[in-house]
Amino acid sequence: MAGTRPPIQAIIFDFYGVIRPNTVSPADLAKRDGLGKDRELLSFIASLRPRYRTGLLSNSDTGLLAYYFRQGEAGEYFDATAISGETGHAKPAPEAFTAIAAQLGVPPVQCLMVDDIGEYCEAARATGMQAIRYTSLISLKTSLASLNVTA
Asked: Which pTM was predicted?
């Protein structure tokens, strides 16, 4: 059938604005993990891993993983990570998206980017990926279901 996309095999998540909301109150820090990571979203990401490869792509300085995740913790959620301060490729550059896809071993056309910034979603689409603009876990689950992505 013309126009049919291959199935999604990898889901890539942004950090700031997705895994860690941009605005986190002191009460939220206490509810979360003291660093502001969304534990409910991370649990959902872990539930995706039996069926999908998962990645973390973030425009951030070196040391992001060491600061926000205990040793080995990021590997509980992500098969690959790409931090711009370490790779030299920042979103919206196409290389940022194609590099994480290559690390995941999945062509961009079979990847889905989840980011809170529309410009980065558009940049992901320009590389062949699908993209969802993140606003909440509830809306993410609805959008994923519409793409036949289930945990």
From this structure: 0.90
Largest Cα separation within the chain, whole Å, is 52
Give the DSSP per-residue string, 50-73: TTSEEEEEE---TTHHHHHS-TTT
* End-to-end CA, the chain: 26
pLDDT in tens, the chain (151 residues): 456 889 999 999 999 888 876 655 556 555 555 566 788 899 999 999 999 999 999 999 888 888 888 888 899 999 999 999 999 999 999 999 999 999 999 999 999 999 999 999 999 999 999 999 999 999 999 999 999 998 8
Beta pairing partners, 53: 10
Burial 18-27 (b: 16+ CB within 10 A, else e): bbbbeeeeee
Coil, strand or helix: which one is 23? coil
